[in-house]
């Protein structure tokens, strides 16, 4: 199963935010949308970072509530790991586990085409395991 399969089910909508937006605005955006991260995009929609709930909490713990007025660019994660639609769920799970991150923007030809969360990956893997289990049950019944 590939990232393309996940995007086909969940869609390709990606919440983005400008690097000059205030951290408080980012927190509000994440809360309103019920998501854990937003992709920070620069000129021509290029991915330049990602800001997550974890980034915001860490910034508040370090700098206090005043950080809510600073630009997202000051706290965002700059080294963004991305994937392509052809990447497998197994590869993505390994990257997320090793890198300890929960959101991966999907990029094709320098264009943001989706985002995959750890929840999407787990749901996909569970569906795959269910299909395999049903196939084995059917095989045993007919054998």
TrEMBL record:
CDD domains xref list: CBS_pair_bac_euk
Keyword Chloroplast: no
SMART domains reported for this sequence: CBS
Key words of the record: CBS domain
Pfam family, one: CBS
All copies of domain CBS, residue ranges: 8-67, 76-132
Record protein name field: CBS domain-containing protein
Organism for this UniProt entry: Rhodoplanes tepidamans
Higher taxonomy: Bacteria, Pseudomonadati, Pseudomonadota, Alphaproteobacteria, Hyphomicrobiales
